[in-house]
Here is the input.
Amino acid sequence: MEYSQLGDSDLTVSRICLGTAFRSEPGLEIGVAAIHAAADVGCNYLDTANFYRNGHSEEIIGHALRGRRDKYIVSSKVGSPMQDVPGSGGLSHAEIMRASEASLRRLGTDYMDCYVCHFPDEQTPLEETFRALDELVQQGKVRHVGVSRFEGWRLNETLGICNRERLATPVCNQVGYSLLDRRLEDEVIPFCLRRGVGVTLFATTGIGLLNGGCRYGQPPPAGSSWDRGPYNYRAAMTAQVDQVVEAVIDIAMARNVTPSQVAMAWCLAVPGITSVITGADSAERVQENCLAAELKLTANELDRLDRVSAGHRLEIRKDCPEGYEERVAKGEFRTK
Here is the structure.
């Protein structure tokens, strides 16, 4: 495993981060085993959010941390509404204070290594949000703060406020980026690199589009996120996307690795990228995906992937809640 400093913080994180949304909804034992497997292969960076499985993902981490807290750097997020907490969500001072206490309780720890704003909140002034986060840092409940999905202009404004008011400054920006969506290399990634803000990537395999099982003209793999919904497979799996998938599969076969490892390794080769999140839900898949940190693509392989993915800006739509098969059965769309 390779490691990088997370922005200007004192956190040294593995270049593969274990995401714990647990979309396949594994039981407690399987979730804990996946987290322990991550540490066994050197992955020390855990990402979660209070919103994931309505708090249950944090509870799974809490069980996994027992007697092992020093092995992990734990990052959780705040800002999304909780199903059982009316009026929750957003980044107000009151919500951050309420949500942080609840997250710490579920995680079974006295502090979070990084506490991240899950989404920008247009209704709350940035200064209010980061004063609240700074209070948590001063209280020792949070070591560092971060943001997610912040545009360059919003992050620049945030850094200005934090510097002027001497508040805890974001050390990372969690953003979606992959061979299928390269928009952020226009501004956000170069800005973060220039300002010393770490970049942690999610959706680096296009929520599974790049894992080799999805091909144009064919239905999505049974049980996958594209099969279950709410992701719209027809809108995403185009002929142009399939060209990228084919290139990833070709390189994976030639190198005797998985397509997912190739997709993540390409992201790790981009300047300014600190770590990529893998959403592996089992110990076996965690161990497999963590090998992406050791995969060094050749100049020719990187060039081929750059060329075939140039200009891709895939919008992943969540307008298929019934899942793929039910939409097909209703005649709403075909595979081609």
About this structure: The radius of gyration is 20 Å. The chain has one domain: 3-208+258-295. Residues 3-208+258-295 form a domain with the TIM Barrel fold (CATH 3.20.20.100). Residues 298 and 304 are 10 Å apart (CA to CA).
